Amino acid sequence: RSGPRIVGGYDAVPGAWPWQVSLQIFRFGRGFRHVCGGSLINRNSILTAAHCVHKRLQPAFWRVVIGAHNIYRPHRYAVKRSVRAIIMHADFTKVKFGKDIA
Hints:
Elements: E1 20-27, E2 31-42, E3 45-47, H1 50-53, E4 62-66, E5 79-82
Antiparallel strand pairs: 1-2, 1-4, 2-3, 4-5
């Protein structure tokens, strides 16, 4: 079903949320695909949900896109970065999504 994706709000202005990132995983034959969002918490760290990354913890399969207003139509300000490490909460449980942080 198509329709508006914002209910009771306003469209974001490009660049208004610079700490929002797209976590993308590489799929053979399909390239990189968006999996989850995250927040830039310092120059070298992204905070996201553990359930987004727990099935594939190898950094080489991931990239982060920072500054994209629309992940399906990247613009010149979007920055793509590789992932060096994935650190998941040691007590994460996928059954109830407890400690769902990475």
